[in-house]
Design brief:
Blueprint: H1 3-18, H2 24-30, H3 35-44, H4 46-61, H5 69-78, H6 88-95, H7 99-114, H8 116-134, H9 143-214, E1 218-220, E2 223-225, H10 236-245
Antiparallel strand pairs: 1-2
């Protein structure tokens, strides 16, 4: 296995996962490691870091049944095993798959690694890997080094608080001005809109009255006043009494099937 080949493919894969030509050093700096710490990892523990990072990818791509087909395809495409990477055509021939199918499969594999959850998990894992590896060195941050950063953090927090208070004050002043303009706008337009709404409601009532008296639907402009006859209903008690004297009426009665409904009995019941 050639580590340079593995590292080259690994960094190429990282740029695919995170974009912007990201490499291992880029991720470490994004995680807050100082340049000297990144150099320590690169000089002394690079192979171990890469190996453990690839193991994270391996675990994510291994199915519940234990098959690691996805990882093997990824490994061959980017040379993660330290051997020269294969093209998709070569991999498809070895697997007896069509290049088109393998291309779609590789895109699915990469999507699994590019998801926000995967990206976050990989960075979190890398952080712990780097901490463990750096913990093996005798070069630890001094108390003075940490204290200096704490003091700098205090100053930055204080500056942020002052800036935030200034922002809030200016924002409140702008909102006060805007609110005054909105109040003036309401005073000008709300009475007009209320008057218009009242006129519309009154006119609609008059139209309904006219259509009821007209007895037919009428269309005009973008509206149609639809006339609907009232629903016919019968006095059930009166019909029952009438049927006692005229049983022939019962021939026209339709009796629906009985039904049962359940309800909770309250204390009042």
């Amino acid at each position: 296995m050639d580590f340079k080949t593995q590292l080259s493919g690994f960094n190429e894969l990282l740029s695919v996962i995170y974009g912007n030509e990201a490499q291992l050093g880029t991720l470490l700096r994004d995680l807050g490691f100082e340049e000297a710490q990144v150099e320590q990892l690169s000089d002394r523990y690079l192979e171990a870091v890469v190996d453990q990072f690839l193991e994270m990818i391996h675990k994510r791509l291994t199915s519940e049944s234990g098959k690691d087909t996805y990882y093997q395809i990824l490994s061959r495409r980017y040379g993660l095993d330290g051997e020269a990477p294969d093209t998709l055509d070569v991999i498809s021939q070895k697997r007896n798959d069509s290049p088109e199918f393998l291309h779609q499969l590789l895109q699915e594999i990469l999507k699994r690694c590019q998801s926000k959850t995967a990206q976050a998990d990989f960075k979190k894992g890398l952080y712990h890997i780097a901490i463990v590896q750096l913990g093996k060195t005798a070069e630890r941050p001094t108390r003075e080094h940490v204290t200096e950063k704490l003091e700098r953090l205090t100053n930055l927090r204080g500056a942020a608080d002052v800036t935030r208070l200034d922002y809030d004050a200016k924002r409140a002043e702008i909102l006060k001005q805007v609110q005054a303009e909105l109040d003036a706008l309401d005073a000008e337009y709300v009475p007009l809109l209320e008057s218009v709404d009242e006129n519309i409601a009154l006119l609609e009532t008059k139209i309904k009255t006219d259509v009821l008296l007209h007895g037919e639907s009428v269309q005009g402009g973008t509206f149609r006043a639809v006339y609907t006859k009232g629903r016919t209903s019968w006095d059930s008690n009166g019909i029952e009494k009438y049927a006692e004297l005229h049983p022939d009426v019962l021939l026209f009665r339709k009796q629906g099937p009985p039904s049962v409904s359940l309800r909770i009995v309250s204390e009042k019941d």
